[in-house]
Each structure stands twice: as C-alpha cells, then as structure tokens.
Amino acid sequence: MAVTLNPAYQSLPGYADLREKASELEGVFLNTLVSEMFKGLETDSMFGGGYAEETWRGMMSEQYAAEMAQAGGIGIADQMVAALIETQAAQQSAPHLSSMGAYTQ
User: Rounded to whole angstroms, how far apart are CA atoms 30 and 92?
Assistant: First the structure.
C-alpha cells in the first residue's frame, strides 16, 4: 500500500529534519538488504575474494543503499514521516494525564 503524504505536512516546522532522518533510517534498512544480496554472490578466485573484496562490498552496499534512499527509496521513509506526524498530532489533541490521573482514590 503506497502512502501519499499530505502536502500540508511539508509546511510543518521540523518537517525537513524529520524527512531527512527517516530517509537515513530507510538507507540503513536498504543497506541490510543489499548486504545480504552481496553475501550470496560468488567471486572467481583469481581476481576476487579476500579481505579487500569484503571491505569493498561493505562500502558498495552502503553507497547503493544511500543512493536508493535519496532517490525515493521503497516508501518506508514516507510511511514513517506520516505515522510520526499523525502520532504527534494525536498526542497534542489528547488530554494531558499523568499515570496518577488515570486512577481514582
């Protein structure tokens, strides 16, 4: 299910920072996926393998993931931004009760 962000969200204070952090988190998730994909690749022993290739694969998966996230990702960042903004709006409209206020004496 695709999430379409309400255009009004973009005018909220802090939206740009929230969107940037959500995109970074999506990049971390994508890095995990790309890293797992690279683990399944076999390399030829004459020019591949070893510590250098392992290091290169890690850096390459980080770059692929960062580029995918910046290009729009797979929608995780949009879902996080929408959920966080809606949660914050719900908390601001809810009555402010402490845990003590929930009990009668």
Answer: 32
Nearest CA to 79 among 32, 31, 26? 26
Task: Tell how many helices (H) and how many strands (E) occur in the chain.
Answer: 3, 0
Q: What share of the chain is helix, strand, coil (3-state, %, to 5)?
A: 70, 0, 30
SS3 37: helix
Q: What is the tens place of the pLDDT at every residue in 28-50?
A: 999 999 988 888 777 776 667 77
CA atoms within 13 A on the CB side of 51: 0
